[in-house]
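Lecture notes, structural biology module. Today: joint structure prediction for complexes of two components.
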Amino acid sequence: MAAGPHEQHKLSDPDNDVRHLHDSKVENPVLRWIDQRMPVISMIQLEYGSFPTPRNFNYFWNFGALAMVTLAIMIATGVILSMQYTANTHLAFDSVERIMRDVNYGWLLRYAHSNGASMFFIVTYIHMWRTLYYGSYKSPRELLWMLGVVLFILMMATAFMGYVLPWGQMSFWGATVITNLFSALPLIGEHIVTWLWGGFSVDNPTLNRFFSLHFLLPFLIVGVTFLHVVALHITGSNNPLGIEPKTKKDTIPFHPYYTVKDSVGIVVYFIVFAILVFFMPNYLGHPDNYIPANPLVTPAHIVPEWYFLPFYAILRAVPDKLGGVALMGGALVILFFLPWLDGSPVRSMRFRPIAKWLFLLWTVNFFVLGWVGGKPAEQPYILIAQIGTAYYFAYFLVLLPLLAKFEKPLPLPESIASAVLKRRGGGPLPAGATAKPMEKA
Amino acid sequence: MRRPMFNLIPTLKAAAVAAALALAPAALDTGARAAEGGPGSGHDVIRIPDTKFTFDGIFGTFDRASVQRGFQVYKEVCSACHSLRQLSYRHLTGIGLTPSQVAAISSQFQVQDGPNDNGEMFERPARPSDRFRRPFANDAAARAANNGALPPDLSVMVKAREGGADYMHALLVGYEEPPPGVTVMEGMHYNKYFPGHQIAMAPPLNTDGQVTYADGTTATVDQMATDIASFLAWAAEPELEQRRAMGVRMIVFLTILGGLVYAVKRKIWSNLHGE
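The predicted structure, tokenised, for the full assembly:
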């Protein structure tokens, strides 16, 4: 029943202190009726349709959408797997094997889920790298970045507990090593570990609570992701030039331009995902996790999943247990302070001639840390890990603050549009300004 | 005029492609792999020789005849000590046996069932739906019968060892006299491919013709080792052929879809040119 003109006016009068229906532009009467009362259609149109987006994204700007796709896949496969999985130390390993053999397409669900975790970290690491390189964490996007760090830590916790569930040797010993880290805390450490375990060793109560938390945390990730996206849509996206859009010429509507560009990325992502799942499903795993958990036999080398290796290297870099735990925690916590450690007003590393190289070195250093994290804790790996850890922290704590003072940035372009059109248009151009094929398309 | 800048994105792209190209053969190749020695063996790296299997590579499939012969070796040799507890007899249709052949095989084994109406456990011939009968009632019984060593379950052994089926084959043909200066502990055997080289399992395949193959294949030790490795590869990954076939279809589909989506993207973005 449509309201009369007089009533309609009153309801939607913004000066009136009364709640009013949304002024919907949707033409279909049924959808308009819904949209007036719950303006999700308007919201999608506003935030994903006409949403003004910098016109110069390169393909690094696909990875947020890819992380969202991965989250959806992980929840979908995970919910179905949980219908078949049994969280009991005597049954867990066999229930996973039953999924692999007797559940219809169970092998596909499980391999998609286990490799999906790797895809999640690949995508998230690239997403974070993009943020660091193009300075997307700087004002006014500090909170957006901090929510992202929260998401990363939640992901790590979720992945760690998920890896425990199949109850193989690496599950059990990984859980033992990681939970034991809390014992490094003075006085209360031992009590916390007993409390985490629900007993005096990693055992059935531990497995049960890890399963429960592994189911819970992804929904917290969904919630924080929502906040992350809300924050993004207030500030808008950063872009490879790191300068804010000034006029309408600098932006294009999100749809169709970035919906279709994200679609290209999503198909490529699925190709990589499919190669992992269908042709090398155990390549990123460890063979020892196909040995049922045995508290009496310690594996020769306990290694975490590949995505934890850089942080594992930092943990083992110092001989002191508490020191190692503090450094590993610090390696994550320091990320929260990054917007204030990096005082340079220039966002994109393209215009920071010194910071760019030091950051690329930091990137290489991160890979080196990952490599030594998978090696036994002996020389020369310990020394390499120590140097790597020192550089990891020095970059944030010393180099970035100093660069903000002493680095002379290159001149920034006037606007996004002028930079894009200059590159595209004819005429003699500086050599470095041509040939950026990934952005040209 | 600005100096030419280091062009990051194409460089990264090239690096990613190079890394992918380097990674793919390393991962897909089931060729020679190194297994690291266990504790106490120092870091002597053992090269596992590459065995040619029909299921190697991305298009590889199981050789049904070899897998069936491997099952025969398992039944007549390995199953004396090693369980295969994730498998049921009905799964054997996956290696090309008919349901009636499977029923004939399962009926050769007695399994415990019950309790019956009188509350007693009883023995009956196994049905295809039963799990493979285990050689020992429990781990303690298995250890008691094997000098204190526990023969591991073989269901996912191929996935649980570095080198997979190549390692299985190598281990079974890798028994030899210890090199001079190496003393083998009481009850242990020297094997050049086992981490640490001292293995509790006595050489299970030691004479040619130990098994008389139904299909007339000559049962050399190497042949038997290849066949049992094939059977165990199937036992660990019965979905392998379906998985790869689906993967090929997925990649073809996604590649075509990707081409189409990219064409659409180019078309849509061409609207912006000259703006």
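Point to remember: Strands of chain A lie at 52-54, 251-253.
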